[in-house]
Model the fold of this input.
Amino acid sequence: MEEFKKGDLILFDITNKQYTEDGFIVGDTLGCNDNEIILKEKIDLENFPSWNDFKGKSSLVKHGELGIILKMCGKPDKLIVSEILVDIPLPGGEIYNVYEVLIKNNQKRQVFGYNIKKTKKV
Done:
């Protein structure tokens, strides 16, 4: 899994990735094609996974669009606790790292590491 830092240029990796292999949804998908996802201003790190994880203004993002990493926000608390209590790390746990990204029209949205990859594209 790739590590991201502030200022990294990223591509959104969305096609057929609206759910993780563990079955968790990674953004709003209502009305989206399989190469689109709706990102929100905030992913609720305290309650994910739950029925109301994505909050704030929304933006439709398509596979292959560019963004810039602004900061790493953390990992959902429930996933951290389950790793500690069961003492079994989630496979590919980095995919659940949440990042704040700058996208088109200078909008800030949050996204899981699962849906981004580094690029050198300019």
Remarks:
- The chain has a mean pLDDT of 88.
- The longest strand covers residues 54-62.
